[in-house]
Write the structure tokens for this entry.
Amino acid sequence: MKTGLPFNILVVDDDEEDREIIDEAFKRIGYESEVKKFLDGGALLKYLDQINASLYPSLIVLDNSLPGLEVERLVSHIKNDERFKDIPVIVHSGTVSSSKEQKLRQLGVYAILEKGTTMNDVVKVAQQLKDTAEANRKENFKQS
């Protein structure tokens, strides 16, 4: 279902297979907006630093285990940047310890979603991500 609202999702995951699976899941739910994918947090930050406000994402999805920049530092960088602090950040992971989950939530992570083990699980996660991005974009349009 199209809402007529432009929104996009940024996904950071170093696993090519995981990126392909999430692409397929978005196709299955009929998500037609852009999903930009990055291999690591450094590439995401470089992209965020060069975009203008019209291209700000509606949602940022981070794998829990990223090469180079650890997820906590990446979340902190995003949430401490005035331009991006209100964009929901979701950590998408196989497992997260309770202490790490607590720290991520204190840093401002919107949600922590477990990676699915079946395609149906991944499709459910994709639907949650789409719904979150869509709700965030609608909220931002109301405030404009």
